[in-house]
Amino acid sequence: MDDHKEKEKEHTGGNPDVPEEEEEDEEAKRAVLLGPQVPLKEQLELDKDDESLRRWKEQLLGQVDTQNLGETAEPEVKVLNLTILSPDRPDLVLPIPFVADEKGYAFALKDGSTYSFRFSFIVSNNIVSGLKYTNTVWKTGVRVENQKMMLGTFSPQAEPYTYAGEEETTPAGMFARGSYSAKLKFVDDDGKVYLEMSYYFEIRKDWPTIQ
Question: CA end-to-end span of the chain, whole Å?
């Protein structure tokens, strides 16, 4: 599978809404029109007598169970959970959609701590091309981070795929603490959105108590 990953981070100020909308408009303009999708089962029947093409398809599809393919042309991606990993803490697995605590936060991080995110997701029906996610973060109405990650192209399979992000460090100090709002989005090369979710999290002086 193509697991090429590209990462872009921006730290900017200003209106949190307008820049994101402009970026999405630009991405829509750059989208390539490839014509109607064909069910994967039908694709496998095309040129089945071409040995080299058959081997290429087998390599692309990997472990997909061709006997259980349906007639649906549209791929589906279901993001199952987000795991927060930190050397100082047990792994925290958060089902998606997030369930907020009594303060309305999906999770809390300690300031100045190292952490990373890990996503699990399932692909079904058809090959999803150019799957990527964006995670945009605001503090007091100012956009402080805009993270974009190209995950790659994936064939349908019963077992979940896992993506582990790079290790990062939360900002430190009194002014870094407090409430943050964020928007998480998973989308493919065709512009199909599989997940778009807004949430809140907190950066604190100390890690929250483990329940």
Answer: 39
Cα pseudo-dihedral 48, 50, 55, 58, rounded to 10: -20
CB of 81 closer than 8 Å to CB of 173: no
pLDDT for 150-164, tens place per residue?
999 998 989 999 999
Sheet strand arrangement including 107-110: 6-10, 142-154, 128-139, 178-187, 193-204, 107-110
- pLDDT, tens digit, 9 for 90 and up, residues 108-140: 999 999 999 999 999 998 889 999 999 999 999
The first and second tokens of residue 160, run together, are 């979940």
Q: Cα separation of 74 and 39, whole Å?
A: 7
Q: In angstroms, rounded to a whole number, what is the distance separating the alpha carbons of residues 81 and 170?
A: 21
Helix (H) / strand (E) containing 45: helix 40-45
Residue 2 confidence (pLDDT) above 90: no
